[in-house]
Structures are given as C-alpha cells and as structure tokens.
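Need tokens for this chain, all 110 residues.
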Amino acid sequence: MNEIVKCGFVECKRHNANIEDSDWLSSKTQLERFIRRWEERNPSQAIYGLVCIGHPVRFFYMPRFKDTLVDFKSEDLTLSIKDNATDVDMILRQWRVLSEATEGKIASSG
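Here are the structure tokens for all 110 residues:
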C-alpha cells in the first residue's frame, strides 16, 4: 500500500478590526509550538505552515534540523485568501512540490 501523508499546519485566528504585528507574532509562536510538539515530525525534513487572521494570511516554514519558523518567500508577505486566491494557491502548490522533492511530510494540526 502506498501512503502519502501531506497537509499543512494551519493556525487560524478570528479577525479583529486592526491586525497588529503582535497578533501575527503570537499566532506564529503558537504555530511554532504546534509543529515542535508534532510527534511524527522528522527533523531532516522542512515543515510548512501558515497563519490566517480572518482573510489575511502569512506563510512560514521550519527548515530542516531547526525548531524556529521563518518567513516563506519574503518577510511579512501578507496575502488575502479572498483577494489573492491565485497567489495563495501557487504557494501551496510550491509547498507540495518542495515536500515531494525532499520526501518531506507536511503534517496537519487541528
């Protein structure tokens, strides 16, 4: 049986009127903790995750053999899942290609 385990770590928050840098930081920190606690994590593989606060979304990854999230693409790149759906889809497709190229697992958290 061939089994492929792929999905993404996602941290979602309710949207407030004004999203502060501290909102992004606390959500990123929480996502980082979820990834570190993931029991099936293979440290030799990068892990990808995103933080969504309402429609705005930011993308991160945890490099191989590291335990800290870094920005995927450019620092503080914020897209709207509503207005930039094509760009969001392209990033998710890149994650899939990257994870397949390195036989990486992208794990899911609830």
